Amino acid sequence: MNDYRIQGETGEWEVVVGLEVHAQVTSNAKLFSGASTEFGAEPNTQVSLVDAAMPGMLPVPNRECIRQAVRTGMALEAKINKWSRFDRKNYFYADLPQGYQISQLYHPLVGEGELEVLVDEKDESSAKRIGIERIHVEQDAGKLMHDQHATMSYVDLNRCGVALMEIVSRPDMRSPAETGAYLRKLRSILRYVGSCDGNMEEGSMRADVNVSVRKPGGELGTRTETKNVNSVRFVMAVVEHEAKRQVELLESGGEIAQETRLYDPDKNVTRSLRSKEDAHDYRYFPDPDLLPLELDDAFLEECRATLPELPDAKRKRYQEQGITPYNASVLTAEVETARWFDALLDAGAEPKQAANWVVAELFGALNRRGESIEASPVTPGQAAELLGLVADGTISGTIAKQVFEIMLETGQGAGAIVEERGLRQTSDTGAIDAEIDRILAANADKVEQYKAGKQQLFGFFVGQTMKAMAGKANPQVVNERLRAKLS
Questions:
Q1: Which candidate in 138, 352, 364, 375 could, as Cys together with 103 as Cys, close a disulfide (CB 3.0–4.6 Å)?
Q2: pTM flag (> 0.90)
Q3: pLDDT interval class at 476 (50, 70, 90)
Q4: Which domains does the chain have, with CATH numbers?
């Protein structure tokens, strides 16, 4: 049940959100040319004659781009259309040398699918299914640079012709939180599949945010589209700001204009850019230079065979191994984390213990050091060795924390550190008894209080004993010997 409502002077309003996500396809070459797609090259150094729209140059579809889009559709359990077609979307802009964009309006490569999201990672009951209307493949435009000259704008065509997947959702989202959850999940799946790197800062994934408001359960209102929003946080901010702006406008007697807007993250506001065009304004028609795409069963089977284990399936597998739903969600959110954790399990770590350690200890250490899990100084194999030493009683959990810090700094294995520094846990009852006797004698008053019923003092005696033995005493033996002596 959605409980996100905007309270206006005339009562509650409901927000309705749909996203059009533009995801740059992971490929070495562009959609219709052999030019490189590598990010960060000098302006206009990755432009073929096709990209520059030189006369007589004909586009040729890149098989890898089509394959990646089909694999994405399959991962979203969407309908794959064996027959699809490219259209020309006509508009004139300085960064579009052809005067049109090759896209797919009428017959997209991928049809309807859906995505299940957890709006709250800690609450399985917050699951919601969000419909996907279509995924079509299109070429990107170039880039205008306004800061290179005082009176002129420069054009960089490196991006021109790069393959994009436009992933169009249904207007099924009803809050900033649902919108954020959908975008995070979609990005995660694209990165698992390897069809897009999901790098929103570099512009390889960006979202157009369609927002309207209505009285709960009423007719859909007029929507606005905020273009090219490049982070999950900003997308959520756009939904919140735009919904409140529309409610205020409607309640003051105004009307919502169907328009394209831009988001200013510095001021957290949206601004009008231009009136919203409809499909007929672009004079779409089938591209005469490109034959329709016809996919055979062998190609589709090849695509399906290359799909990895996806986040939902991986999360379910983790939970079946005893990992909590929350930890399973955290461990599967990013593909690099899931790969690292799978390598840890493959090295022999016990799943539940390993999950708790990664989420609490490893993530904490990496955050302090400002490092990603791929750059972790401790490998999955080394982590499995450390956890194994705790599990078999060689070292205590307290000592394990010390060993882990040394591993982070030196790159040494846990076993070598334990032996070199004499950190092995002891179960020598003689040594433990001697320390317990000393501590009980030094705290005779507390012993009397304990025997008089102050049971919480037991933890004090355990702590003092462990401290006296520098954390090397086996906690189970300490507990047993203390209970025996105090009784």
A1: 138
A2: no
A3: confident
A4: 6-300 (no CATH), 311-420 (no CATH), 429-486 (1.10.10.410)
